[in-house]
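Example (one chain per record):
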Amino acid sequence: MLSPFKSIGKIIVYIFAFIGFVLVVGYFAVKFGLTNTKGIIDNQQSNFIQTEKTWNIGEEWETLKTAIIKDEEVIKRAGEITGIPSRLIVAQLVVEQLRLYHSNRELFKKIFYPLKLLGNQNQFSWGVMGIKEETAKLIEKHLKDTSSIYYLGLSYENILDFETKDKDKERFTRITKEDDRYYSYLYTALYIKQILTQWEKAGFPITDRIDIISTLYNIGFKHSIPNANPQSGGAIIEIKNVPYSFGTLAKNFYNSNELIEYFPKN
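Predicted structure:
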């Protein structure tokens, strides 16, 4: 018969083995794209994607507006330092947060709604902007690589320099920090600027295409292929039983008058 101490020891070993298994599964899920959200291309699904104004109706939208206004200063600071319109940054934030609010109703009711908070992710995607670790690393790499099609110039090279030797830990802390979300917005703005630079260099500027910019924000660098006929789309966001694509929903917010007194159209 096993002693109580040996039994406890075996239980602890099983627990750590299970945790290890979960972490390994999570790693390969991210590596092979299993955590990616199902998406669509708008012009191939025009009968499916809606544009009705249901996204800005109800307690979810009222909660989100209040929460975004709290971050007005840091959003604008990220926009000013990168030259990216603050409203364009907010357009991505709106979609990421509406997706979270409507997909996790229990969490919304218990935390986000009563406290008027933005949802801060810390697993497969990080922070209020849903930035993946791989994407964050690429943004940093492009800032330093003068041969990159995403290179922004010497003045941007050191904008994300780290203060410690543990870059992975510092990166995670930066993007998921609860009381100061400046870096979440800065990484977002830099990603957008790098994408705009790529398309401009290729001869296909998309500065005025909010739907395309937002689609590219959602689907990532590897799917950003400059061309003369870009198509909007991205992940499906369902709000009150109405489906939107990421690109369409971001464009709908940007073109609306919601929060216009805080984040004007440029």
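Caption: The chain has ten helices and five strands.
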